[in-house]
Amino acid sequence: MKRVPHTFLIVFSIIIFSAILTWIVPGGTFERETVNVNGVAREIIKAGSFHYTGQQPQTWQVFSAFFEGFRNTSEIIVFILIIGGAFWIMNDSKAIDVGILSFLKSTKKLEHWKPIRKLGVENIIITLIMLLFSVFGAVFGMSEETIAFTIIFVPLAISMGYDSIVGVSLCFVAAALGFAGAILNPFTIGIAQGLSNLPLFSGIEYRLFSWLMINLAGFSYVLWYARRVKRHPEKSLVYEEDEYWRHRTAEKTEETNFHTPRRAWIVFALTTAALVIYAFLFPVSELKIGNSSILLPVIPVSVAAFIIFGIVSLRKTVHYFILTLLAFTIVFLVIGVMGYQWYVMEIAALFLAMGIVAGLSMGKTGNELTKLFIEGAKDILSAAMVVGLAGGIIVILRNGQIIDTILFSMAESMKGLGKIGSVEMMYVIQNGINLIIPSGSAKAALTMPIMSQFSDLVGVSRQATVMAYQLGDGFTNMLTPTSGVLIGVIGIARIPYQKWFKWVMPLMVILIVLGALLLIPTVTMKLNGF
Fold this sequence. Notes:
Blueprint: H1 7-24, E1 28-29, E2 32-37, E3 40-45, E4 51-52, H2 61-72, H3 74-92, H4 95-109, H5 114-119, H6 121-140, H7 146-159, H8 164-181, H9 186-195, H10 204-231, H11 243-248, H12 262-281, E5 285-289, E6 292-296, H13 298-316, H14 318-340, H15 344-361, H16 366-379, H17 381-399, H18 403-412, H19 419-434, H20 440-458, H21 462-474, H22 484-493, H23 497-519, H24 521-524
Antiparallel strand pairs: 1-4, 2-3, 5-6
Helix pairs in contact: 1-17, 2-17, 3-15, 3-16, 3-17, 3-22, 4-7, 4-14, 6-8, 6-10, 7-8, 7-22, 8-10, 8-21, 8-22, 9-20, 9-21, 10-23, 12-13, 13-14, 14-15, 17-22, 19-20, 19-21, 20-21
């Protein structure tokens, strides 16, 4: 059997290749200026300011790139380690195993309904979960948050008879599909339209249609693969790697000692007190959805619901209480992201608190909690390290000063093309740049000042240019090794990059072709907002 390269080796090879490019591609740079975009200061390129600079070939820097990449992606790395430690504490309680078993038993009962049985209960479950995360990706740009959900959905998928790739698809792939659809995503559409002087979130009707088409294609591919693995588990690309997850889910949860220790009630009382104070401090929250916002008492309502469900679950077993903690952690995550612009630091703190409360509820001592946290962080350390290594790719390209040169050369290649050719070339360019710069907001600031002005010259609407950026920015997030989120997710799921690449590549071809087709009406038809 041919031995496949380790993910570390693949990423390091890409770093070396990037360093070689710095010897071949001339150095160049654009001048930049700071502008206000939707109330936020953004650094953008000055039109016509590109000039070549002296080459900055990278040599020994291929080794220091790991250090710099680690530093530049430190937020995601720390986030992964904290999530790993927190969930290890929760997993020690067997609460997630109990929840998965109860969930599977409940879904079996639905098979008594003929319409549901015909569609397939598990097909419906996969579709509904993916639809939820696609909405999150389309509305508020869910991305880094999927790292935390990977630890939940991979064991669920394994327990349902699928593999870790299906588990990752439930959250990460679904959110990426929504991110590409980007109906109201403020981090992509919001910035791109602001830089293009377009009304915020205009053209939403066609974007909604595109989002539906993208989901249809993506969901169908995942359901096809899931069905194939269900029928023939040995055909899974990660059958050997999933032995780790199968071993973890093999323990008999029926033998779990269902009980509620007195300490769990005390922890519940203290947690409730803290949440009640929080509810009084924030009686009303402003939830932002795209360019709209709504004032709602979501925190007091959520706290009241937590109290009710907490009491009910504690009367059954502490395991159900811990599942209640997990559910409301997700609720407060959504509130924090939509209402208070939370990012990885706040989300990591939230999950850390969840892990500690879960451990204390099970009667763990401080030393036991510390030991469990360290074990969890150690178990997930390789995933965190590969994120830092992948960050080194961008370090080499940036220090070699070839990113702007590549962008300039791509923009020059569009001259002389017709409307369809121009918008498709923009799409190709955005896909290419996304392999180097996976950050949607950074890429918008980098490319839209050039692309929007070029679109005026060739008679393509700026809205179509934004659409080309949106689709080009979204799909390849599921493929590029420079994405800390992708590397973190597959690292946690223990999926080797080369096997993930093999699985996702056909989906990429389908989505990229679909994106090219969706762009044609933006320059050939009269669409609202275009």
